[in-house]
Design goal:
It contains 4 helices and 12 strands; from the N terminus they run H-E-H-E-H-E-E-E-E-E-E-E-E-E-E-H. The chain has helices spanning 2-6, 90-108, 141-149, 328-341, and strands at 64-65, 128-130, 191-196, 199-204, 209-214, 231-237, 240-246, 255-256, 266-267, 274-283, 286-294, 303-310. With 345 residues, the protein is of the alpha+beta class. The protein has one domain. It has a 6-stranded antiparallel sheet, with no helix packed on it.
C-alpha cells in the first residue's frame, strides 16, 4: 500500500459522469473545439440494447472489481471556469491526455514504477451532475452551525486536541462514511461487488468496509438503530440495482478532505441523510452509477453524483490496516498539550 500512496503525490484535480473515457489524443472522431452541455458523439460506448449477464439465480450480474482510480483527476465539485458545462472540449481532452501521459511516464521512469491512476481521461468536468453548475449545495443555517462545531485534524487552523472528540471518524480510521465511500480517493480506490441469492455485497478497499445489501424486500431495522454507514436495502428495477440507504448516525460527514475537489474539508450530515444509488451494467466492462443525496436539515437542495465504473479484475485490493500501529491521535493530543503548556518565548 505504501508503494501506491507514495506514487500519488501531486495528483491534480480536474474532471467524470456516466460516459465513456475520451480516446487518446489524435484518435476517434474530431469534434468542434467548442464544448456542449450534451455528450459529444465520440463518448457513446455503452449500448442501450446491451443485455447484462445473469447470475445462476437470474439477477443481473454486477460481480467483479470496479476501481475508481480513473476518477482521481475528476473533482467532486466543478471548477468555476466550466460553468454549467458537463463535458470537456476536444482541445481540453487532448491537453489532459498529454498531461496524464507525461505524468505516467515520469512515474514509470522513476523509483516508483506504478501510480494508482488509470490511463483514462474522462470527459466530465465534475462528479456532481446536479445541480447543473456542478457545485455542492449551500448549507442551511443549521448546517452552518453544525459545520462550525465539527472537529478534525483536517480542519484548517485547528490546533487544540484534547480527546478523541476532537477528531473525525476518518482521523480515527473508523470509516469514510457515506456518500464519501462511493467517491474516489487518491489511493485505495478498489470496489469489489459480490452477489448471492438475495444479497449484493460491496467491498471497499479504503477503510475495509463491506456493505451488505439485502435485495429480497427485507424490512428495515427500527429507525432508532443508527449506523456509521447507514442501513441499505436494495431492489431490482429491470437491469438496474437500486439501493436506498437510511438510518445514519450523523457522525461522519457529506464530504472529506480526502475526496478530490471537495468544496471544503468538512461538510456536516445528520441522521436524516437519505441516499439512493443506481447501478446499471451497460456494457461488458461498464456500470453506470448514479447517487442522489438529500439531507434537508443541513442541505438547501439534494445533489446527484454520477460516473462510469469500469471492470478491472486485475486490480489488486490491498489490506487497509489503519489501526495497526496507528499513533496519530495520541501524538496529536500529546503535541497539542505540550505546545499549550510550553509556549514559545
Amino acid at each position: 500500500m505504501i508503494r501506491r500512496i507514495l506514487a500519488l503525490g501531486g495528483i491534480s484535480i480536474a474532471v467524470a459522469l456516466a460516459q465513456a473515457p475520451a480516446p487518446p489524443a489524435g484518435q476517434g472522431k474530431k469534434a468542434p473545439a467548442a464544448a456542449s452541455k450534451t455528450a459529444p458523439k465520440t463518448v457513446a460506448k455503452s449500448d442501450a440494447k446491451f443485455t447484462p449477464p445473469k447470475t445462476p439465480w437470474g439477477e443481473p450480474d454486477l460481480q467483479g472489481i470496479w476501481p475508481l482510480n480513473h476518477l482521481i483527476a475528476v473533482g467532486l465539485e466543478r471548477p468555476k471556469q466550466y460553468g454549467d458545462r458537463l463535458y470537456l472540449s476536444e482541445d481540453e481532452i487532448a491537453k489532459a491526455q498529454a498531461n496524464l501521459d507525461a505524468r505516467n511516464k515520469r512515474f514509470e521512469s522513476g523509483p516508483i514504477p506504478q501510480a494508482d491512476v488509470s490511463k483514462r481521461v474522462m470527459r466530465q468536468t465534475s462528479l456532481i451532475v446536479d445541480p447543473p453548475n456542478g457545485h455542492f449545495p449551500e448549507l442551511t443555517e443549521y448546517g452552518k452551525k453544525l459545520q462550525a462545531d465539527m472537529r478534525s485534524s483536517y480542519r484548517p487552523g485547528e490546533t487544540v486536541f484534547d480527546s478523541i472528540d476532537d477528531f473525525s471518524a476518518w482521523d480515527r480510521c473508523i470509516t469514510r462514511g457515506m456518500p464519501v465511500s462511493m467517491e474516489p480517493r487518491n489511493y485505495n480506490n478498489g470496489i469489489r461487488i459480490m452477489q448471492s441469492p438475495g444479497y449484493v455485497i460491496i467491498v471497499l478497499e479504503m477503510a475495509h468496509e463491506a456493505r451488505v445489501i439485502p435485495t429480497t424486500g427485507m424490512p428495515p431495522l427500527d429507525s432508532t438503530i443508527k449506523q456509521w454507514m447507514g442501513e441499505s436495502r436494495g431492489h431490482w428495477e429491470g437491469n438496474t440495482l437500486v439501493v436506498e440507504t437510511t438510518n445514519f448516525n450523523g457522525l461522519v460527514g457529506e464530504t472529506s478532505a480526502g475526496v478530490p475537489g471537495s468544496p471544503r474539508p468538512m461538510e456536516p450530515e445528520t441522521e436524516g441523510l437519505h441516499i439512493v444509488e443506481r447501478f446499471t451494467r451497460t456494457a461488458a466492462d461498464t456500470i453506470e452509477f448514479k447517487m442522489t443525496i438529500s439531507d434537508p436539515t443541513v442541505l438547501v437542495t439534494p445533489y446527484t453524483v454520477a460516473y462510469p465504473m469500469y471492470l478491472d479484475n486485475t486490480y489488486e485490493m490491498f489490506e487497509y490496516a489503519c489501526h495497526e500501529g496507528n499513533t496519530a491521535v495520541r501524538n496529536y493530543i500529546e503535541t497539542s498539550r505540550y505546545e499549550r503548556t510550553h509556549p514559545k518565548k
